[in-house]
Amino acid sequence: MDLKPSGEGEHLWLNISKRDQNTTWVAGLLAKLAGVKRNDVGFCGLKDRFAVTSQWFSLYLPGRDLDLSCLKHDDFQIVSAARHTKKLRRGMHQGNKFQIILRDFSVDATALQDRLNVIQKCGMPNYFGEQRFGHQGNNLREAQALISADKLKGNRHGTGLYLSAARSWLFNLVVEKRISENQLYQTSEGGDTGPLWGRGRSPVGGVIGEMESHVLAPWHDWCYALEHAGLTQQRRSVLVRPENIVSDWIERDQLKLQFSL
Predict the structure, then answer these.
(1) Of 90, 114, 125, 199, which one's alpha carbon is 20 to 30 angstroms from that of 35?
(2) How many beta carbons lie within 10 A of that of residue 24, not counting itself?
(3) Which domains occur in the chain, in start order?
(4) Are 226 and 244 in contact (CB under 8 A)?
(5) Torsion on CA atoms 150, 154, 156, 160, rounded to nearest 10
(6) Neighbours of 107 (CB within 10 A)
(7) pLDDT tier at 189, thresholds 50, 70, 90
(8) Which of these is catalytic: 2, 20, 40, 48?
(9) Which own/partner contact pairs does 159-165 have at CB distance under 8 Å and 24+ positions apart?
């Protein structure tokens, strides 16, 4: 993380390592163990659950010293701790670093490096990941049920998770169509972005605008629900460009990839 704790302040920052645990679960555990409100726990973003990850959390502890031993839990380990004047909030970090090991993997080394060079230069599809849609797509099924009952009303009503899933699904459909029509790298007329649906007129016209309208036409009920759930229409890049890609063959059939997003 680009922001470093100052060493003093009302917030205790914790660098935590965890395996197969999601961010919100750990935040809840920290609140319970520290005896603070859940809203007094901050973090910059969500990490993948099924991975070994490390990230910073903050605890609001004004005028209170906390023995770190009371935060001991089998689901995570505290790597380091320091005080700071501010709470950690979404988007405060520059990005994430990844290390992935591919096993039982075989490919021509030259072809692989050529492809990685293209990805780093041109980017790759910026899909929302499967975890956004829940186990076996359950979040999408719940979103459909809420839409059918006219109850997809946003986070104030406890349905924000399903609203986000529905919005992400529509975006992915547009990206998929862009790929099939060889239009992923079209950048004119706002073509470098795709819709995060909500109230308001789409700023994109031309071929891309027509394509988006065609893709979303069968999902009229979903678009209508998102428009009336208090969301304003936004745009998200259809491409993501990994940086600092490094590949290393650690075994004959095992490749380690490192990159930043």
Answers:
(1) 90
(2) 13
(3) 11-84 (3.30.70.3160), 124-240 (3.30.2340.10)
(4) no
(5) 120
(6) 11
(7) confident
(8) 48
(9) 163/226, 163/229, 163/231, 164/132, 165/132, 165/133, 165/134, 165/139, 165/140
Instruction: Please report the DSSP string for 66-134 in residue order.
Output: --GGGG-BTTEEEEEEEEESS---TT-S---EEEEEE-S----HHHHHHHHHHHHHH-EE-PPPGGGG-
Listed residue (204, 178, 177) closest to 190, CA to CA: 204
Residue 107 exposure: Cα atoms within 13 Å on the Cβ side: 16
Q: What is the pLDDT of residue 153?
A: 80
Residue 40 annotated as catalytic: no
Contact yes or no for 140/128 (Cβ under 8 A): no
Is 70 exceeded by the pLDDT of residue 155?
A: no
- Distance in angstroms (rounded) separating the CA atoms of residues 204 and 190: 5
- What average pLDDT does this structure show over 133-149? 93
Backbone region of residue 134 per phi and psi (left: phi > 0; alpha: psi in -120 to 50; beta: other values) = left
CA-only gyration radius of the chain, Å: 21
C-alpha span between 83 and 78 (Å, rounded): 14
Tell me what the mean pLDDT of segment 147-175 comes to: 88
